[in-house]
């Protein structure tokens, strides 16, 4: 390189250095000035709160979100223990394992106490948020806003109702609150009922709310006046205002609800919008929109390879009357049955044509094999279930009854519940459970028959009824009985029995026409009619009959013949009221504990 | 994309607006070292003038000088040399290495610094420490290498074996991971081939890390990869073949008869029906007598009546292969390092391995004398097998010995009728899913360096890095067989129920980084300054779809699925903008000061709270340079003291946590799906930075003529405004609590590094040890704990606000205690006297072991209850409640209830070590070299109560750990003489399906988890030069190396390094390696 170009380069170099510095400074400034949006990021999959409730569509979606709180207890990985039907494990159902509340082992740290509390309050806060913003922000039409407000108020009332059923007196929040504000002490049980009644009355008085939706309506599943009457009537049962209860229940019928003619077919997708249904959790056979009943109630042989987490308690089976309405008695089927050693009754349930090994094993278990009929054993036991209240067959898979189940060896199969279990595959197709060495009654209600009835075991499509007219009729009977209008009460029960196809109650024959006698029959009827619907446990709490019904001496998780697998233990009267969750009392020290619970 | 475009255009502007320049009398020269290798980047100054130059990639320089000038040539790590020009046009200079290790150059944030001139706390780990180890990842290699750097490898699973690194303890309640910077750009360790690493620096204090400001609160790990140099291309091959085995395995009862008996014991203990029938037990007993006999279907008894040892069954020994080849070199104006690696790590379980291909190109070219352009580009592809390890470890304890894994092409199912038909067969989790899992990384930096004038340079970088994962997944229909009935217990899914899925996810970051550096030296004054600017954008998105119903199990492309089962997708992003600067000053290498400041803005905060400022100040005094120390230097060399103070930040909030959002949920009306929205997280518009204030003081010196090095440091790190989510009352519902700035944590500690190096003739050896003590305390959270007796309504009530002021349960966060200290009941300890002399019950006289073991113990419990005391969690006596073989807990608050929640106390211990240590040693004699590395943690405890592994619950379908089976309480109250009675068993009685008493959180399950591990041992032999010359090789070394050879610990679990749980075990490796240079 020669010296003249070097000179020239030095000059341009000087200029370029200056230029470069300017460019650098400009770049830096420009990047921070021009690119202001670099630092502004917004979520891609959710909506900022400033926009929420600001359009008609968003108002709808917000209200839908309140409804969705009804589904918070659904867990698709295994039983949460908090879905409505799962509460029946305390009464007409039984778990494969026992709940701590049944073992005398529950503590205030019990996960169900805290989760139920939390989920119901979530619903309440969603409702409060909606109530405020429908008024304050939503541009929807006034009549629509009025209807939505009524719907949301109903839902809030429903959540408080559920809380009060279990915890009896909880803090009341009626407007959106900050975390710092959630420190209220408990209101009394009466104050909560008052709040629930006040919301429900406003709902009933809302002119924009339809009386009810009929089958096929696009709005089906939304709150209606009939639902409000039904729930308010139920609350009146809690507050023992029988006349008021009666009036509301009658109103439900007046608005056009009636009993569906066929009990067994009622709990199917085809009839989920029958006139009997008043308020139900909406399910669709789509992943994320369905129910889990197939998974928790079904067997391995039902579609989806299920867990039979919950089975039917044999007290419920024995509770079903004979077809003619008389009380079922084991001794009439098998003389001496009720007085013999419970464990030895197993012999009557054995299948025909036992193998030598099976016979040997049975004798080793202490069974008197002289009572075994090698070719007629099944026929004998089937008689016990043959002439019974048809609801038994509708709700329960009894021994040697059939179930149309999953596809094996190429097609869907009819499985039979047999004992002892041998093999799920052909030619016998024994109904197979996860509890093959115990013989249990199994659920049929809310279990989907067939080879592939739903997309998956956690996507059941049947709407889950929260209140149906059958429940209302029996509550009506209960109110009538309390008012000592006994024949009317019996007549109400008989409408239910007639629909079911079982012999009606006849005074002096199968019902004593005393307040106690009628009440006893109503309670029995409710257990039979509403089995597996998430109602019976709350009934027993309300009636304070838990101890006698569930914790009698010798109670427990039982095999079909009554042998106790896991005994229940009554720990005390505190079981009538759930404990305030321990963690919640730690975070809000103004919450008092319910009597009998030790933190 | 808008960001990409912008970044690129700016970069091009900066790089190409330039011209060349020059001067008059020209001297050219070459700078080399003794071996003849040229030195690039050496600095050449004219003595007494301000002109200077530096050597190019070939070690050459050109300078305009006076003919009689003297040149001063300097290069870090070498002695400075003066050369007279003496009218020569061409000079050749050979530099000699500065023997003192203190001349070592350490990479620091946005620069390099002589170790002796550091004012902050930086631990430097040379690439040599990682060389020749059979490493599957970089992070675990740091274990034991530096004081205050604690490394814990939580899993040995190929591809998920990256270790957790904690620098100076855990300073926050959220993400405490150190920032990783690779070649100046924020990145990840997985995107580095260990063989490419030139050096690693760990920035431990604010003085060194403040230049990374808002992301540096947990320390910074700087990784520098090897660059090319101007020399003959050197080709290096390194190959390692490593035999692997699990370092430990869980042990379960494999004898099915014993398993069944223990389960029946657990059920009858609590009054429940035995889950296994006697007929099944008898059948197995009989068949076990002749395991090889064939049954009627031709299956041997050991298959038809299995006794499977799952803890062993799932593991296998394998071979890891690791091949690395690199070419390092340069030519005129260009230098390069091109390398690639192939690794096949099959893991220690079938179908869990991976194969990875990596390549790197570091290429630099000197476009003009003042302009350098270059790239550092890394790419890798990794193919993983689809074995479902997560499920497998979830179900490892949920498996019984009564299932045979695999025989004659068939998978075993439940063999006994007493079991649920779908019992876990772990083999099916490894074999049940097939498909592709391919992960691709690309990390490319394009950079330019402009030299405006002497001492002033601008460096600009644009980096794009991305990681994407492409996945397909389809189920293999597996039927499970009962070999004793020759029938299928669980039939595999039919094609119409099979699913196939395909998914894709990707994250990418864009970084634009500009640094302007200036340095000057006048007489003894050295001055340096730097200003910089950085923009950063991160984005993640995914998409996946599933279809159900295949034409046939063998046809599994998603297009062939018949029914849509689901589609999902998500996306999120974040960004950051920063400005930073540094000034340092050094007088005569004696007095050193440095100031750093960084201002960062993060998109994770609302616009009013986005900016944070993070300054640091540090100073050092090298006493040994003082004239008055000359006498002392004979005994103590290179004595230095340094001190620093600074602030660092952490923005570890969720990406959008400051805003309130409504998220979608599902509902339906009238049989039609509908969208629904609900508030998902509570907003906090005031959300802002978390700040750590760090100060430290240290001294460094050498002894015995620099043979021994000593470094002692004290630090104090206080983190405040910690980003965390505080627990909110359940009454707020299921909404996620707000992220808030709450709480403060103090970490304070001492670090000591000691080293020794010596050489005697051909024999050289060295030791290095490091030790760190860390004290950790939450200094602010939600208020003080107050507990005690209070009078409420004329009654004395014990009250505690523990739930209000703390979070957690087993581990709590509470003011005045360490982060996540254990909070537990104590097991009752009595003196066994039962009664006072007057016959009344002695509350201190209960069972000595705290367990109801004897009738006398039980009578004491009854007497206590009669006297008004009660026991918690369960007070009722009975087989299913409190009974023989159950624990009693101490009543620490004196409320007469033994073991309720108020009786829990802080143990003063955590799962993190108080003391960490590392030790390494090496020696070499002629061609032989030996080295080893140890590391460990002390003063930590683990709470280990895990069903199937370490508690007394026997649950449906689970296994039972040998340690429980062999040493638990059993008492047959119907037969006190029962030979099975074991009233001295350590563990509580077995209970079927649950246990509310013995599982109550208590110190019974707390174990000392201190450990020390031999990480690595290496024996190598370097072939003599004379042999190599014949083979035309530059160098060659063969070596044996072992990883994770053994652990010394009292912890009874799998591996204290993994934690209390059981997961994919770390691997023990024995490897043979070969390194050849051409």
From TrEMBL, chain A:
A Pfam family it matches: SusD-like_3
Taxonomy, superkingdom: Bacteria
Keyword line: Cell outer membrane, Membrane, Signal
Gene3D superfamilies per record: 1.25.40.390
Location relative to the cell: Cell outer membrane
Family: Belongs to the SusD family.
Listed name of the protein: RagB/SusD family nutrient uptake outer membrane protein
Source organism of the structure: Rhinopithecimicrobium faecis
From TrEMBL, chain B:
Positions of the TonB-dependent receptor plug domain: 115-220
Membrane topology: Multi-pass membrane protein
Residues in the signal sequence: 1-22
Family the entry assigns: Belongs to the TonB-dependent receptor family.
Protein name: TonB-dependent receptor
InterPro entries for the chain: Beta-barrel_TonB (IPR000531), Beta-barrel_TonB_sf (IPR036942), CarboxyPept-like_regulatory (IPR008969), Plug_dom (IPR012910), Plug_dom_sf (IPR037066), TonB-dep_OMP_SusC/RagA (IPR023996), TonB-dep_OMP_SusC/RagA_CS (IPR023997), TonB-dep_rcpt-like (IPR039426)
Naturally occurring in which organism (per UniProt): Rhinopithecimicrobium faecis
Subcellular location: Cell outer membrane
Keywords, comma-separated and alphabetical: Cell outer membrane, Membrane, Receptor, Signal, TonB box, Transmembrane, Transmembrane beta strand, Transport
Pfam families, alphabetized: CarbopepD_reg_2 (PF13715), Plug (PF07715), TonB_dep_Rec_b-barrel (PF00593)
Domain TonB-dependent receptor-like beta-barrel: 385-811
């Amino acid at each position: 390189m020669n010296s003249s170009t070097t000179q020239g380069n030095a000059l341009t170099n000087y200029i370029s250095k200056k230029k470069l510095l300017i460019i650098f400074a400009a770049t830096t400034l420009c990047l921070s000035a021009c690119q202001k949006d670099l630092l502004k990021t917004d979520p891609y999959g959710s909506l900022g709160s400033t926009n929420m409730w600001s359009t008609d569509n968003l108002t709808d979606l917000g209200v839908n979100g309140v409804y969705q709180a009804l589904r918070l207890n659904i867990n698709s990985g295994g039983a949460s223990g908090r879905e409505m039907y799962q509460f029946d494990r305390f009464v007409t159902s039984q778990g494969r394992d026992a709940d701590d509340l049944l073992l005398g082992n529950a503590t205030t740290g019990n996960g169900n106490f805290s989760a139920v509390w939390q989920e119901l309050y979530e619903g309440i806060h969603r409702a409060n948020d909606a109530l405020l913003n429908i008024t304050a922000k939503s541009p929807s039409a006034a009549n629509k806003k009025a209807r939505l407000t009524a719907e949301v108020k109903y839902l809030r009332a429903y959540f408080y109702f559920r809380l009060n059923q279990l915890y009896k007196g909880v803090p009341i929040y009626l407007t959106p609150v900050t975390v710092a504000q959630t420190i209220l002490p408990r209101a009394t049980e009466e104050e909560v009922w008052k709040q629930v009644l006040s919301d429900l009355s406003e709902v009933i008085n809302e002119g924009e709310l339809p009386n009810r939706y009929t089958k096929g309506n696009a709005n089906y599943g939304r709150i209606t006046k009939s639902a409000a009457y039904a729930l308010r009537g139920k609350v009146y049962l809690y507050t023992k205002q029988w006349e008021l209860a009666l009036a509301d229940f009658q109103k439900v019928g007046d608005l056009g609800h009636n009993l569906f003619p066929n009990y067994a077919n009622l709990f199917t997708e085809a009839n989920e919008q029958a006139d009997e249904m008043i308020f139900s959790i909406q399910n669709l056979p789509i992943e994320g929109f369905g129910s889990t009943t197939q998974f928790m109630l079904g067997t391995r042989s039902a579609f989806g390879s299920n867990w039979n987490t919950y089975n039917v308690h044999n007290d419920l089976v024995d509770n079903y009357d004979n077809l003619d309405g008389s009380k079922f008695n084991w001794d009439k089927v098998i003389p001496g049955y009720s007085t013999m050693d419970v464990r030895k009754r197993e012999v009557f349930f054995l299948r025909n044509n036992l193998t030598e090994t099976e016979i040997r094993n049975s004798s080793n278990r202490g069974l008197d094999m002289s009572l075994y009929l090698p070719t007629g054993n099944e026929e004998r036991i089937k008689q016990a279930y043959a002439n019974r209240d048809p609801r038994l067959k509708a709700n329960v898979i009894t021994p040697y009854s059939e179930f149309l189940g999953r596809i094996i060896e190429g097609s869907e199969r009819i499985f039979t519940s047999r004992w002892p279990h041998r093999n799920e595959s052909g030619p016998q197709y024994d109904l197979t459970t996860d509890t093959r060495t115990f013989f249990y009654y199994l659920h049929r209600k809310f279990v989907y028959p067939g080879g592939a009835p739903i997309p998956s075991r956690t996507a059941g499509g049947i709407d889950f009824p929260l209140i149906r007219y059958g429940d209302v009729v029996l509550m009506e009977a209960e109110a009538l009985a309390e008012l000592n209008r006994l024949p009317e009460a019996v007549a109400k029960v008989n409408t239910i029995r007639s629909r079911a196809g079982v012999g009606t109650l006849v005074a002096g024959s199968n019902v004593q026409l005393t307040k106690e006698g009628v009440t006893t029959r109503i309670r029995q009827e409710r257990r039979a009619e509403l089995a597996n619907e998430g109602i019976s446990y709350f009934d027993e709490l309300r009636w304070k009959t838990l101890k006698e019904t569930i914790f009698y001496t010798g109670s427990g998780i039982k095999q079909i013949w009554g042998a106790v697998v896991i005994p229940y233990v009554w720990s005390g009267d505190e079981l009538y009221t759930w404990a305030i969750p321990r963690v919640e009392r730690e975070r809000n020290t103004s919450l008092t504990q319910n009597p009998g619970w030790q933190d | 994309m808008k960001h990409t475009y912008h970044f690129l255009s700016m970069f091009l502007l900066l790089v190409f607006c330039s011209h060349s320049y020059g001067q008059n009398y020209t001297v050219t020269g070459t700078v080399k070292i003794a071996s003849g290798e040229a030195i690039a980047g050496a600095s050449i100054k004219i003595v007494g003038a301000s002109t200077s130059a530096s050597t190019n990639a070939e070690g050459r320089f050109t300078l305009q000088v006076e003919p009689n000038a003297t040149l001063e040539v300097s290069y870090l790590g070498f002695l400075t040399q003066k050369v007279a020009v003496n009218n020569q046009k061409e000079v050749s200079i050979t530099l000699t290495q500065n023997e003192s290790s203190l001349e070592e150059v350490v990479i620091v944030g946005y620069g390099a610094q002589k170790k002796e001139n550091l004012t902050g706390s930086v631990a430097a780990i040379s690439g040599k420490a990682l060389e020749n180890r059979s490493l599957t990842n970089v992070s675990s290699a740091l274990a034991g290498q530096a004081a205050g750097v604690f490394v814990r490898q939580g899993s040995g699973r190929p591809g998920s074996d990256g270790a957790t690194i904690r620098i100076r303890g855990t300073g926050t309640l959220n993400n405490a991971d150190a920032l990783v910077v690779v070649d100046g750009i924020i990145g990840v360790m997985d995107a580095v081939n260990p063989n490419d690493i030139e050096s690693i620096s760990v920035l431990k204090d604010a003085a060194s890390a403040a230049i990374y400001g808002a992301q540096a609160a947990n320390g910074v790990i700087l990784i520098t990869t090897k660059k090319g140099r101007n020399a003959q291309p050197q080709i290096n091959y390194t190959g390692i073949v490593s035999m692997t085995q699990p370092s430990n395995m869980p042990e379960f009862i494999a004898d099915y008869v014993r398993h069944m008996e223990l389960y029946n014991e657990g059920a009858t203990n609590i009054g429940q029906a035995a889950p296994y029938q006697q007929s099944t037990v008898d059948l197995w007993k009989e068949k076990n007598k002749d395991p090889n006999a064939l049954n009627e279907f031709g299956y041997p008894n050991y298959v038809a009546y299995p006794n499977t040892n799952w803890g062993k069954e799932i593991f296998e020994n394998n071979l890891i292969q690791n091949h690395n080849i690199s070419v390092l070199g340069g030519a005129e104006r260009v230098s390069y390092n091109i390398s690639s690696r192939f690794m096949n790590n099959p893991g220690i379980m079938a179908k869990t391995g991976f194969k990875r291909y990596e390549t790197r190109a570091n290429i630099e070219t000197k476009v003009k004398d003042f302009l350098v352009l270059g790239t550092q580009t890394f790419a890798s592809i990794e193919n993983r097998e689809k074995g479902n390890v997560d499920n497998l470890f979830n179900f490892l304890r949920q498996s019984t010995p009564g299932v045979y894994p695999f025989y004659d092409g068939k998978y075993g199912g439940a063999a006994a009728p007493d079991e649920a038909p779908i019992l876990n067969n772990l083999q099916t989790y490894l074999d049940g899913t097939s498909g592709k899992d391919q992960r691709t990384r690309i990390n490319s930096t394009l950079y330019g360096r402009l030299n405006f004038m002497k001492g002033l340079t601008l460096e600009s970088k644009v980096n794009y890095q991305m990681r994407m994962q492409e996945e397909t997944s389809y189920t293999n229909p597996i039927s499970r067989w009962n070999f004793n009935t020759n029938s299928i217990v669980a039939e595999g899914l039919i094609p119409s129920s099979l699913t196939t899925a395909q998914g894709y996810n990707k994250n990418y970051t864009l970084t634009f980084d500009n640094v302007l550096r200036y340095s000057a030296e006048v007489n003894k004054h050295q001055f340096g300054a730097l200003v910089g600017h950085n923009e950063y954008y991160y984005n993640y998105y995914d998409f996946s779809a599933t279809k159900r119903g295949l034409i046939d199990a063998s046809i599994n492309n998603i297009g062939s699925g018949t029914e849509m089962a689901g589609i999902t997708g998500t996306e999120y992003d974040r960004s950051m903008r920063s400005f930073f600067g540094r000034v340092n000053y050094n007088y005569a290498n004696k007095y050193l000061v440095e100031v750093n400041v960084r201002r960062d803005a993060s998109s994770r905060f609302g616009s009013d709270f986005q900016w944070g400022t993070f300054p640091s100040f540090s100073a050092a005094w090298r006493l040994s340079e003082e004239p008055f120390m000359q006498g002392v230097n004979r005994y103590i060399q290179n004595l230095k003291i340094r001190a620093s103070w600074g602030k660092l930040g952490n923005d570890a909030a969720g990406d959008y946590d400051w805003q309130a959002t409504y998220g979608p949920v599902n509902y339906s009306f009238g049989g039609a799906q509908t969208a629904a929205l609900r508030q998902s997280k509570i907003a906090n518009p005031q959300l802002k930075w978390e700040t750590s204030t760090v100060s430290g003081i240290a001294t460094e010196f050498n002894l015995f003529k620099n043979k021994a090095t000593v470094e002692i440091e004290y630090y104090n790190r206080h983190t405040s405004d910690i980003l965390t989510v505080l627990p909110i009352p359940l009454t707020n519902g299921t909404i996620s609590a707000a992220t808030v700035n709450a709480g403060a944590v103090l970490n304070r500690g001492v670090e000591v590094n000691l080293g020794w190096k010596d050489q005697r003739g051909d024999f050289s050896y060295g030791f290095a040890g490091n030790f760190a003590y860390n004290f950790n305390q939450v200094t602010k959270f939600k208020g003080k704990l107050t507990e005690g007796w209070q009078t409420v309504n004329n009654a004395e009530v014990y009250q505690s606000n523990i739930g209000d002021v703390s979070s957690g349960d087993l581990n709590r966060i509470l003011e005045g205690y360490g982060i996540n200290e254990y909070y537990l009941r104590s097991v009752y300890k009595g003196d066994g006297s039962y009664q006072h002399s007057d016959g009344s019950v002695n509350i201190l006289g209960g069972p000595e072991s705290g367990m109801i073991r004897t009738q006398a113990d039980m009578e004491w419990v009854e007497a206590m209850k009669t006297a008004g005391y009660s026991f918690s969690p369960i007070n009722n006596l009975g087989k299913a409640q409190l009974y023989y073989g159950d624990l009693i807990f101490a009543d620490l608050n004196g409320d007469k209830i033994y073991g309720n929640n108020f009786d829990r106390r802080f143990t003063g211990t955590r799962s993190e070590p108080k003391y960490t240590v590392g030790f390494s040693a090496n020696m070499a004699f002629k061609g032989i070299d030996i080295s080893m590395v140890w590391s460990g943690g002390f003063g930590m405890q683990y709470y280990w109560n895990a069903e199937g592994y370490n508690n007394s619950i026997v649950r449906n379908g689970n296994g039972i750990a040998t340690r429980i089976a062999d040493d638990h309480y059993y008492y047959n109250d119907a037969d006190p003489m029962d030979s099975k009675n074991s009233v001295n068993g350590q563990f509580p009685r077995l209970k079927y399906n649950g246990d509310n008493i013995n599982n109550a959180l208590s110190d019974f399950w707390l174990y000392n988890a201190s450990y020390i591990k031999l990480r690595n041992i290496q024996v190598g032999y370097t072939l003599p030069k004379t042999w190599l010359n014949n083979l035309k090789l530059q160098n060659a070394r063969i070596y044996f190396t072992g990883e994770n050879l053994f652990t010394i610990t009292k912890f009874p679990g799998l591996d204290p390094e993994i934690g209390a749980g059981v997961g994919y075990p770390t691997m023990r490796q024995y490897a043979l390696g070969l390194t050849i240079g051409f």
